[in-house]
Amino acid sequence: MAFAPVLHAEWLKIRTLRSLPGALFALFAVTTAFSAPAGSDGSSDPGFDPLFTALSGVLPGQIAAITFGTLAVSSEYHGGALRLSLASVPRRGRWFAAKMTAIAVPTLLVGLVTAVTAFLVGRAALGSAASGLTTTQQVRGVLGCGIYLMLIALFAAGLTALLRSGVATLSILIPFVLVVSFVVGDAAGTVADFMPDKAGQIALHQSYDGTLGPWSGLAVTALWTAAALLAGAWSVRRRDA
């Protein structure tokens, strides 16, 4: 079977499983809602970063992106759905590539729309405090935000394919981004810059003094994502459905 009909079939699954469009809507709603009041505090802080403040809603919003990537894959492991999918598409690598594409494209599109909206709302709340942002910084922040959300969703999808369990994936990733990244990450110094979430979030900052820059940080997150996808693809190809 050609790639296009396989991709179309995987897109239909995502569109018709209500929890998945719901996760994308939550990504938009949560990110925007948390960015709206961001400018009300902290503008007098010497370390104040107007770009990160305007896009700070992505920190809770990324949970929805993780959930979307996880549910899109874990649904295949219920009720023998994966057996039916692989019976229709015997070439497992092609099926896996179509599944990941069907996850990546809507996450990127929704992520970009979310980033633009959240930034506009956050900037409006900041008022004159955001006047120092250049056009390049704003565009980079919005693009970086959309790419980061796509990568973190794919990272979750690859890990779910490896673990074959949505519960296991969420039990690992949600505490990681909510606890480890903030508590351990702050104490780990330079090492924290290479964590999959911290590295990608560098693109959301106006300036950064660490080892990585905005695009190299996203590249590190992309490497984490590629590793998770390769492990997930191995699991799909080598293990019984």
Describe the structure.
- There is one protein chain.
- The model has no long low-confidence stretch (mean pLDDT 89).
- This protein has ten helices and no strands.
- Helices cover 74% and strands 0% of the residues.
- It has 241 residues and is an all-alpha fold.
CA(first)-CA(last) distance: 19 Å
Strand residue percentage:
under 5%
Give the overall silhouette. Answer: elongated
Secondary-structure element order, N to C: HHHHHHHHHH
* Overall average residue pLDDT: 89
Note poorly predicted spans: none
Q: How many β-strand runs? A: 0
Q: Please give the largest β-sheet.
A: none
Provide keyphrases for this structure.
241 residues; mainly alpha; 10 helices; 74% helix; 0% strand; elongated
Topology overview:
Layout: H1 3-16, H2 19-35, H3 50-54, H4 58-74, H5 81-88, H6 92-126, H7 135-163, H8 166-187, H9 196-201, H10 214-238
Summary?
The protein is mostly helical and 241 residues long.
